[in-house]
Structure formats: C-alpha cells, structure tokens
Amino acid sequence: MRRRRARSGPPPPSHSPGKQRCRLDGEENNGQHCTSSSSDYSDPVYKEIAVTNGYINRMSRDELRAKLAEFRLETRGVKDVLKKRLKNYYKKQKLMQKEPTNGDSYYDYICVIDFEATCEEDNQPEFTHEIIEFPIVLLNTHTLEIEDTFQQYVKPEINPQLSNFCINLTGITQDHVDKADAFPQVLQNVVEWMRQRELGTKYSYTILTDGSWDMSKFLNIQCRISHIKYPSFAKKWINIRKSYGNFYKVPRNQTKLTIMLEKLGMNYDGRPHSGLDDSKNIARIAIRMLQDGCELRVNERMHGGQLMTVSSSAPVEGAPAPQMPRFRN
C-alpha cells in the first residue's frame, strides 16, 4: 500500500503536556467546550480547533503516534483513541491559553471499587449474591498515581459455603471467608480507613466502578441482608463504562474491562476476577482517560433504592465524609 504523504495544516502546539481535563465527562460537542464559562463559540480559537481536528482526522496511525511522541504523550492504543488523545491535547492547550480553567473544582481522589460476590455456575434468579471481597484503590487525581489500597474479605451469611465455581473464578478460598468478618464490621473498617485518609473532610473524593452492578445491586442487596441502611457516601459514583463509551465514542459492547484495556494498548495486570486486581486495572483505565483529557464525572446514583442517571451538566460534587450507616429494624 502506498504510504500517504504528511499533510500540511496547523500542527498541534509544542507546549509541554499538562494535566487538564475536558468537562462534561468527555463529551466533545464538536470540539467546542472544555470550560464551563466559554460560551462564545464565534471566537477564532474554535475555528482553529475545528481546522486542526480535520487535519488530525486525515493523519495515518504512524503520523498520529509520531506527533504524540513529539509532545511526550502516550502512543499506545487503537487509531480512534490516538486521534481523540491528540485532539483533546490541542484543544485544551488552545482553550487554556484563552481562559485558564480552575483545577480546584475537581475531586482530589477517586476510590475505585470492584466487589466480588458469591456466585454459582448457572446463577439462578433466586440466588442471592453476597459480597465476599471489599477492595478500594485510591487514585490521586493530581499525581495520577495509585496512592493506597484497601482489601478485606467478607464472611457470607446466606450461603456460607462457596461454590467450586466461585472459588475457581475469584481465587477466594473457603478459608479466606471463614476467617473474615461479617459485612457490617468490614464496612466499619472501610469507613475508618477512609476517615484516616481525610476523604470528604480535607480532600474531596468520589467513587468509581466498572458498571452499575457494584453499587446498585451488590451493595444494595448486601445492606438489606446485613440489616443496615445504604451508606450515604456510596449513593453516587462514576460508571467508567459510560464515561469510556461517551469519551471515545464507542458502543456499549466495547466497554468491558479487558476490551477497554486492549483498545488503550494495555494488558490486564494480575488475576482476573480478583477484586483488588480488577480495581487496580480499572484505575489504570481511569488514569489513561484523565491523561487523555476526560473529566471523569459522577454519572449514576441511587435514589429511593433505584438506579438513576446523573446529568453530565450537574456540578462536580464530592461524596460526603464517610459514616457508618444505622442498622435497620
């Protein structure tokens, strides 16, 4: 195949890369908003952005990688990801020159949580899933590094004997859960761990999950089993599958954990279906998305025991300081 010549056009600026984020969970709106106060799209800067987006759209994958390398940006990923990365870098640089954004309004930390629960091979509708691993990966949004982790196993009440399928899938043994605390005590330990890190007091934070089920199903069901109210700090979260699909413009069937990693040019690190390892890999995706210019925002919440969507135009609000919920009668 004949190699295409590099095309002329306004190349992205050669500023050193900084960590800025595009608002509204990465929704692009034709490349026209990255600051909440910039509403005058007649400004010549938006024409520059549109022209450069067209130039980037015509670049080959090799040309994209070369330009990203020039700006010391990540060069791994499929072509669409590379284009999105370069467009957002150029867009943010131009809009930051026009009107610097306030970086103080974003979360200081993101708590990535991916529960493991009891399961059976056929998972009949009447089977009750109980949380058996509670992991947290603490992601610092300023350094874009994993700063700390928490992990505790949980003793199930309804089905205390794990199925062989569950053991083989998760790597959690019967001995692990037999020696573990019941869920209320583990949740109390989680609350104390979060308080020690001053989440919700000194530092703003939110929760991030891989899908809706962790909070809307597993935690919701577990709180009923344990006769405790649903914790207020977990009522809103970022569903990274939605964020990834919106930001990179991909269909829902391309937002599974392993596919997201693959499209971003990364391999799974650790043991699949280990709650802690899954959480670390989800955090890696979140880091890459933040680097690519996505402002990960709360997009789901629990209200009246039901799962609801949070509008992308809602203000960025951190979760409340963690407190142990009251027991139900």
Automatic annotation (TrEMBL):
Biased composition (Polar residues): 29-41
A GO biological-process term: rRNA processing
Domain annotation SAP: ranges: 56-90
EC number: 3.1.13.1
Keywords, comma-separated and alphabetical: Cytoplasm, Exonuclease, Hydrolase, Magnesium, Metal-binding, Nuclease, Nucleus, Phosphoprotein, RNA-binding, RNA-mediated gene silencing, rRNA processing
Cofactor list: Mg(2+)
EC category name: hydrolase
Cross-referenced PROSITE patterns: SAP
Region described as Disordered: spans on this chain: 1-41, 310-329
UniProt KW Nucleotide-binding keyword: no
GO-annotated molecular function: exoribonuclease II activity; metal ion binding; RNA binding
UniProt keyword Metal-binding, yes or no: yes
SMART domains per the UniProt record, alphabetical: EXOIII (SM00479), SAP (SM00513)
Catalytic reaction list: Exonucleolytic cleavage in the 3'- to 5'-direction to yield nucleoside 5'-phosphates
GO cellular component: cytoplasm; nucleolus
Primary localization class, coarse: cytoplasm
Cellular localization per UniProt: Cytoplasm; Nucleus, Nucleolus
InterPro entries linked: 3-5_Exoribonuclease, ERI-1_3'hExo-like, Ribonucl_H, RNaseH-like_sf, RNaseH_sf, SAP_dom, SAP_dom_sf
UniProt name for this protein: 3'-5' exoribonuclease 1
